[in-house]
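Assess this today:

___
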Amino acid sequence: MADARGIEIGLVGDQEKGTASWRFSFFQNSFVRRNGIWQFLNVTIAPLVVANYSDGWGHGGVMPASTVDPVLLDYTTRGTNKPIAQTATADSLEELSRRLSRSYGYEGAESISNAYGFYIDFIDGAACSLMAAIHHPYANKESPFAGFYHTRQRVLEACTQAYGTSARPTRSAISFHWRPQPVIHVSQDGRSASLRARLLQPATDKTAGTIRGGMYHDQMVLDENGSWKLWSLTIDEFYWTMNSWKEGWGGVEVRDKDAPDQPPPRDLVRQYPPDLWLNEMEGEREVGFMGGRERYISWPEIQRMWFGYRNPVSGGVPENGSYWPGCVPCYQHKPEWGMTKHGWQEPPTGPTLVRAMFAPGNGSSDDGTFISVSVTPGPGEVVEGVVRLVGEQVELEYVLTEKDEGRVTFELPRNLSGGFHLLEATFSGSNRLKPGRDTIDLTLPGGPGSRLGD
């Protein structure tokens, strides 16, 4: 079980009315882990501030003062002041080491993500070398509205081409790159990770300012020196924007239908061409983005939002063809840039769904009792690994290979005693797939030899 507590920031608008508002709410959620998958148990949200965009919240906003008193998270929030009993059992030292490495992987991925955001907040000729240094030597990085540069050296040279080689002691403008709400998937060995994070980009200068939003799709690896580095960095932008602080995000006019499909290319594209141009990427991936293919989609029009992972609970694939796992340029266009070509594992794309069920023919003592176990991965992912079916009087095992297509049927021992049996089906996981588990209840009337599954 787990709890989360935080502040929700809402940027709400109505383009047809030209109105916008700020909303700040307190949330406290509880989660429970069932069969290896985290799910919501309880959701609590309470508004604290609702304020008109232009007036701000300096005078208290437009809603009555909140009566909610947010509490600190501790054991008392669940009705007890006693620590929760630890039920985990000891495993081999190798397995415990792997789990610890995966825990470090979440911290390492978020840390390098934040470092990148800080470096490009203040990007100039001097900061280019610092930003490039957090990339792996064989990394690839997208330069906005242009394309992807492959290798750390090319990333550095593209940056210096755009910003020069000198530091700026003062600046008239700044564009922040905040990367909130990261969704992180760590590989089974804890040496690589995928991260999807929002871009929240407040920008200001001496005369104007904006707020804009996009989405990052990144991969990170643990190098031979034990340091986390960026392997691939992609930015989808902008999903929403505003013209100025005065008008806000509710005052953006619909783009003129007669406007050019794409703006003129950046100077960087002509002066230092990328290794993979955005408009060279076939298929739907860069359609509608500035610098990509066809007509770019500008807020308040709605652009397709891409996902590199499946639904964390159901395992379902995102709708509307918006599923693009792994390194964005590697998936279909530059597979030789992928991390598996250099000795790292691809992180999983979501839960491995394990389902145990009675196979056809149950209920006949002549046929025996059969349990079918299926292991469902993401699209294109091969199921290889160990499946076990275990109970108080049952211990069965099978090694799945690609030819099994993720399914095995076990025959239960014929000498099982009568009564209730709880069986657990587990999948060990593999280089690409998370472990998974499911349970099934079996009730046998009478004594040995009698078979009837509920």
The chain has a mean pLDDT of 88.
